[in-house]
Amino acid sequence: MDTGSHLLFGVTLAGLAFFHPDVAAQPHLAAAVLSVTLVGSHAPDLDSVVRIKGQDAYLKHHRGLSHSFPAWLVWSALIGGLAAWGWGFSEHLLLLCSFAFAAVALHVIFDWTNAYGVQCLLPFRREWYHLDALCLTDPFLGVVHASAAIGAIIGLWPYPQWICAGAWGLTIVYIIWRVVHHEVVVKRVRRRYRRWRAIHVLPGLWWFKWQYVVQTDTGFEMGVIDGRRLLPSRHLPFSEPHHCIEATRNVSAVRTLQDFAKREYVSWTVEPGGGYLVTWTDLRFWREKDWPYRAEVRLDDHYNVIGEQIGWYKKAWEAPYV
């Protein structure tokens, strides 16, 4: 999920702490719990510091080791321990570490629900896990948790723990429904393309809107689902081999994309001034005009690499919402 959503979830998670009598009775302890849930809700994304080494390094490590299960324990001990020391609540160390752990775990779980996914089993397995059920920013969850948080802060809800518990209960039901709905949509696409070899269905920003890519024996089929309508968009044949493609396979940006991609695709064009532009992408993240997540490699006429770059070439509010 996006940073704002993670922090919002941290606020409503802290609201659950008011079920503990000591938290309800001590405003400073409540503030300490809020501090660990806010920091813990964002902590796994501190891997963004590797941006200083470039976009290639960031995409290679983002949602990797910092999101892994061993890191949950490190984050919770570090955040809870510092909070207990800083706020002077050493007797509540276990409470603070527990809420820090919950915040970190929920961060990773929410990341798991969207299409980008997470490497939560590092260093034991490098596989990316993703449920493809929620967008990076889910409007429904944003409204639910913002209403609970704002109402609790301004005193609209006399018992903040109960409204926050209601928000989290609704969140659990909502995520289950979205996961089940995703499986229903996948089955619809399977019935439409009987000769499928692989299927990926990604959520749109609004309910009942999805986009899909299907690998068949002849190439890739892409389209959208709007309610009950399944609308094919385009057919993409398999890419033709070329020397310029082979010359880019060991380029760092290409290896980074290949380590992440589920449905990689490569295309090439001859540059107007000479040489070649080779573009690698993950077809899961397609849109009508281009592929926003891609690695681009420029070669001269002799297939020597003269430039490379990788990244997301889209605005945050543009599809796909990952």
TrEMBL record:
GO molecular function: hydrolase activity
Recorded coiled-coil stretches: none
Protein name: Metal-dependent hydrolase
Keyword Ubl conjugation annotated: no
Keyword Nucleotidyltransferase: no
UniProt keyword annotations, A-Z: Hydrolase, Membrane, Transmembrane, Transmembrane helix
InterPro entries per UniProt: Transcription_regulator (IPR053170), YdjM-like (IPR007404)
Sequence intervals crossing the membrane: 69-87, 93-112, 165-186
Highest taxon in the source lineage: Bacteria
Organism in which the protein naturally occurs: Cohnella silvisoli
PANTHER family tied to this protein: HYPOTHETICAL MEMBRANE SPANNING PROTEIN, MEMBRANE-BOUND METAL-DEPENDENT HYDROLASE
